[in-house]
Design brief:
By secondary structure, the chain is α/β, with parallel strands linked by helices. The protein has 2 domains: 259 residues, Metallo-beta-lactamase, Chain A (4-Layer Sandwich), CATH 3.60.15; 179 residues, P-loop containing nucleotide triphosphate hydrolases (Rossmann fold), CATH 3.40.50. The strands form 3 sheets. The protein has a 7-stranded mixed sheet. The chain has a 7-stranded mixed sheet with strand order 7-8-9-10-11-12-13. The longest helix has 24 residues. The two termini are 31 Å apart. The relative contact order is 0.10.
């Protein structure tokens, strides 16, 4: 199965032609211009035909004269525009064409043609139907969208490859129990704009949750490819979005991409050991949690201990707990090296939050601050060095996928007290040693994460 992406944009494309927002400016500057979402399968089966689609086909040198079946998801203008059918008629193409979709969408298309056109047959579909088209088995699924009878398409090709075309829809759609997809084209319309009027589209909060659900149900696995489509200017700039999606095992295609379904993904393997650095309230914990948001389960390793005498600290811990998914488990411990050594590669990934508190507790437990004489101080120094060495060695050798959070402490004023300077130096050295043996290091500033190892964040 070969899939050509004739468009990957939302209703107004991306960039929006009348908009001057930062997202639209960045998309134009990065040369990623997206037309209405549509996909062409093996040159004969067209998914959606919005008003941009015919011109996109010409732009990419793709002929539409061989198309024999059109599958339309719903009646909105960027998915069902009958100009394509009219232009086909003008070109004198008389081969039979079947157009499938919800009745509302077919009505919107039929008005472009004479009522007695013998070459085009409109065939209404309802959710749950199965039709076979020249060897392609097409299953219709109900979309969660604000259009009468909106559909998603589950398509199996004659060679056994299976595709899910999921636009437009919110996260509340179901897939067959036996489904396992080689390719998923999943809409991600709103990006970081989570205040959109309804749940009838995905954003960067619900998109990973849908991936999590599909993985839990084995509808996708490590060999499946997931591509984000129907993109709009609620998203961050394409170069940033590409990195965000990659952390979830999803790709950001461009218009005109040709996908050989079943071929390996061009995505690099997701990094195994990631260190996330940032200052106070920089958003580093949220960035680390976001990286694992598409995982069916996560082991959250809390290095802090509760202090019932400190209401502010209790509130901080409660806020962290409240934003963790219900599928995550929490372990409160400082035995990080042991956890890293015993964790297996196929265990759920681990999030450690945070190394700053871990180091503080290690210093207290070792008695570095309470050493009463030079001999005790040297013993405490040696014990702390051995503990840090053990953690770095375990981090370097672990088979687990792990994300760890730590504070960047070198950007402020030099602490007034000797203990503050010692803690700053120890944490800075620990961060540097872990970074040297990490697969990726993110630095978070004002809620924006930048990879220090890679260029796609």
């Amino acid at each position: 199965m070969e899939v050509t992406l004739l468009g990957t944009g939302g209703g107004s494309g991306w960039p929006h032609p009348f908009c001057t927002c930062a997202s639209c400016y960045a998309a134009a500057a990065e040369g990623e211009i997206r037309a209405h979402s549509s996909a062409l399968i093996d040159g004969v089966l067209l998914l959606d035909c919005g008003q941009d689609v015919p011109r996109s086909a010409v732009r990419f040198g793709v002929g539409l004269e061989r198309v024999r079946h059109v599958l339309v998801t719903h009646d909105h203008h960027d998915h069902a525009n009958g100009a394509a059918l009219l232009w086909r008629r003008w070109a004198g193409v008389t081969e039979p064409l079947d157009v499938f979709g919800p009745r509302s969408a077919l009505d919107a298309l039929a008005m472009w043609l004479p009522p007695d056109d013998p070459d085009v047959v409109f065939r209404p579909l309802l959710p749950g139907e199965i039709v076979t088209l020249d060897g392609y088995v097409v299953r219709t699924l109900a979309a969660e969208h604000d259009s009468d009878g909106a559909l998603l398409y589950d398509i199996t090709s004659p060679d056994g490859r299976r595709l899910l075309y999921a636009t437009d829809t919110g996260p509340g759609f179901d897939t067959p129990d036996d489904a396992r997809y080689d390719l998923v084209l999943l809409e991600e319309s709103w990006g970081d704009n989570t205040t959109h009027a309804s749940g009838r589209h995905h954003d960067l909060t619900t998109f990973p949750l849908t991936l999590q659900r599909l993985r839990t149900h084995h509808a996708i696995d490590d060999d499946s490819r997931v591509l984000a489509i129907h993109l709009g200017h609620g998203n961050p700039r394409p170069s940033v979005l590409r990195g965000r999606l990659a952390a979830w095992g999803a790709e950001l295609p461009i218009d005109g991409d040709v996908i050989q379904v079943g071929a390996p993904s061009p995505l690099r393997a997701r990094p195994q050991r990631v260190l996330v650095l940032g200052g106070a309230r920089s958003g580093k914990s949220a960035a680390a949690e976001r990286m694992l948001a598409a995982e069916p389960s996560v082991c959250y390793v809390a290095t802090s201990s509760e202090n019932n005498d400190d209401p502010e600290w209790t509130a901080r811990i409660a806020a962290h707990r409240a934003r963790r998914p219900a599928s995550w488990t929490t372990v409160t411990t400082t035995s990080l090296a042991e956890l890293l050594r015993t964790r297996k590669a196929d265990d759920p990934p681990m999030l450690i939050d945070c190394l700053t508190l871990w180091l503080s507790r290690m210093i207290d437990d070792i008695g570095l601050w309470s050493a009463s004489d030079e001999i005790a101080a040297k013993a405490a120094d040696a014990a702390l060095a051995a503990t840090i060495d053990d953690l770095v060695e375990a981090w370097s050798a672990t088979h687990a996928r792990v994300v760890a959070v730590s504070n960047e402490v070198g950007g402020g004023i030099v602490p007034e007290h000797r203990s503050g300077r010692r803690f700053r130096d120890e944490l800075g050295a620990l961060n540097a040693r872990l970074a040297a043996v990490s697969d990726d290091v993110l630095f978070v500033t004002a809620g924006i994460s930048h990879s220090l190892h890679r260029s796609d964040h």
